[in-house]
C-alpha cells in the first residue's frame, strides 16, 4: 500500500517527540542583541552567533539602507545571467583583500558554499580526508561527490598522516577541517595539519565559519591565526553570518578557483544573487572590524572572564579555546532542564543533545559576544550557579 503523506509526517514527528528531539524554536520579539526579548521575556542572550554585535549595529544598518535605496530590494537574477551588480564584485574584492587571498566569491550561505566548492573540486579518483567532527555542511557536501572519502580522528595530525599514507591516489588529495569546531569551541591544529598534508602532496580546505571575525589580526580567521594566509595550498571557506551579522558564504583562494566556481558551483549558478542591502551591511562589517579593534578586544575580554568564572564554579567547559563556551551536563534531559531553568532566570542559552552531540555529552552552548556587558555576564553566572547546584552538576 502506498504511504500517505499525512501518515509519513505523523510518524516522523511521533518518533522525534518520543525520543525527546522534537524542536520548538523560541521566538525573538526584538533584534538579536546581547540583551533581547524572547517569547515575551527580557533575557541575556547567550545563544546567538553574533560575536561582534554587528547584527543590529547602526553602521551596518546605515550602509544596508543606502544600498537598498540606490540598488533596489533584490538583485533580480542569478549571478551568471543578469544578477551580478557592481557592488557584488566590489565586495568580493574587499573580502579577498581582507583574507589575503587571490580572489573571493560569495555564495548564498555557508552551508551551500561547502556543497558548491567541494562538489566543484572533487572528482572520482580523488581522495578527501575529513576531521570526524566537521560540520554537517561539509559532510553533506562530501556526500555529493564521487571522491573516495576517509575520516581522521578529531584534530589528530598523526592519524591524518596514517590515513593519507594508507590511501595513495593519483588524483587530487584534499584535507578538510573546520577552523573552529562549533560544538566544542576548540581550534584545529592547522599548522600541523597543513604540514602533514604537504608531506603527502595534499591541499588543505578550512571552513572558518566560527573563526572569521574571532581569530587572527582584525578577525581575518584561523588561517591568519596560524600565519598561513599567503599559502597557495590552503583554501578558505566560511559564512558571512555569525561574526559578520548578516548572511551568505564565501570561498577565498587562487583566482582560478573563483573562475571555476563561477562556471561549475551549482548553488552559485542556480540561486539569485544577494540583495543589495545584504551586500551593503557586509561591506560595512569588514570596514568596521578593521577600523576599530575594540570589538575583538571586548569579545576576548568577555570570553576570558566568563570562562574563568564558570570554571571557578566547577563547570566542565570541555576544553573550549574560543568564545564558544560549552557547559557539560551529560544527559540530554539534564541539559534541556538546565536550559529551561536558565530561561526562567532570564538567561537564553540552548541545550544540545544527541544527535547534534554524542550521547552522554549533552551540553548548553554559550557564545559570549563583544556586546555583552560585565553586568550581563555576572547575571548569567549567578543563574548558572543557582541552576547547576539545583541539578547537582556542581
Describe it.
Belongs to the class-II pyridoxal-phosphate-dependent aminotransferase family. With 394 residues, the protein is α/β, with parallel strands linked by helices. The protein folds into two domains: 128 residues, Aspartate Aminotransferase, domain 1; 234 residues, Type I PLP-dependent aspartate aminotransferase-like (Major domain) (Aspartate Aminotransferase, domain 2). Helix content is 43%, strand content 16%. It has a seven-stranded mixed beta sheet with strand order 3-9-8-7-6-4-5, sandwiched between helices. Strands 1-2-11 form a three-stranded mixed beta sheet. Helix 6 links the parallel strand 4 and strand 5. The longest helix is centred in the C-terminal third of the chain and has 20 residues. It starts with a helix and ends with a helix.
Amino acid at each position: 500500500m502506498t504511504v500517505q503523506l499525512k501518515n509519513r509526517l505523523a510518524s516522523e514527528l511521533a518518533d522525534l517527540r518520543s525520543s525527546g528531539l522534537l524542536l520548538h524554536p523560541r521566538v525573538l520579539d526584538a533584534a538579536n542583541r546581547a540583551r533581547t526579548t524572547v517569547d515575551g521575556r527580557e533575557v541575556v542572550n547567550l545563544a546567538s552567533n553574533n560575536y561582534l554585535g554587528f547584527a543590529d549595529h547602526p553602521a551596518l544598518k546605515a550602509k544596508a539602507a543606502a544600498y537598498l535605496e540606490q540598488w533596489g530590494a533584490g538583485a533580480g537574477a542569478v549571478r551568471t545571467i543578469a544578477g551580478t551588480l557592481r557592488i557584488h564584485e566590489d565586495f568580493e574584492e574587499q573580502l579577498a583583500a581582507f583574507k589575503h587571498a587571490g580572489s573571493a566569491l560569495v555564495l548564498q550561505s555557508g552551508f551551500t558554499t561547502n556543497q558548491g566548492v567541494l562538489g566543484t573540486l572533487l572528482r572520482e579518483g580523488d581522495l578527501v580526508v575529513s576531521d570526524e567532527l566537521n560540520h554537517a555542511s561539509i559532510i553533506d557536501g562530501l556526500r555529493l561527490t564521487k571522491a573516495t572519502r576517509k575520516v581522521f580522528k578529531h584534530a589528530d595530525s598523526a592519524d591524518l598522516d596514517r590515513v593519507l599514507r594508507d590511501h595513495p591516489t593519483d588524483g587530487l588529495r584534499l584535507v578538510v577541517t573546520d577552523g573552529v569546531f562549533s560544538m566544542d569551541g576548540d581550534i584545529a591544529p592547522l599548522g600541523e595539519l597543513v604540514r602533514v598534508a604537504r608531506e603527502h602532496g595534499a591541499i588543505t580546505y578550512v571552513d572558518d565559519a566560527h573563526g572569521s571575525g574571532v581569530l587572527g589580526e582584525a578577525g581575518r580567521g584561523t588561517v591568519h591565526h596560524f600565519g598561513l594566509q599567503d599559502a597557495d595550498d590552503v583554501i578558505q571557506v566560511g559564512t558571512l553570518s555569525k561574526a559578520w551579522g548578516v548572511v551568505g558564504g564565501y570561498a577565498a583562494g587562487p583566482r582560478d578557483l573563483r573562475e571555476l566556481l563561477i562556471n561549475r558551483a551549482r548553488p552559485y549558478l542556480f540561486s539569485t544573487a544577494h540583495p543589495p542591502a545584504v551586500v551593503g551591511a557586509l561591506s560595512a562589517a569588514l570596514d568596521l572590524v578593521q577600523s576599530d579593534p575594540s570589538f575583538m578586544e571586548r569579545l576576548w575580554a568577555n570570553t576570558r572572564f566568563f570562562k574563568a568564572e564558570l570554571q571557578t564554579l566547577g563547570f566542565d567547559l570541555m576544553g573550549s579555546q574560543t568564545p564558544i563556551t560549552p557547559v557539560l551536563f551529560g544527559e540530554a534531559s539534564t541539559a534541556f532542564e538546565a536550559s529551561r531553568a536558565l530561561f526562567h532566570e532570564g538567561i537564553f542559552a540552548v541545550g544540545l543533545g544527541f544527535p547534534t552531540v554524542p550521547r552522554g555529552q549533552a551540553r548548553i552552548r554559550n557564545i559570549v559576544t563583544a556586546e555583552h556587558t560585565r553586568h550581563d555576564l555576572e547575571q548569567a553566572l549567578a543563574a548558572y550557579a543557582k541552576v547547576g547546584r539545583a541539578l547537582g552538576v556542581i
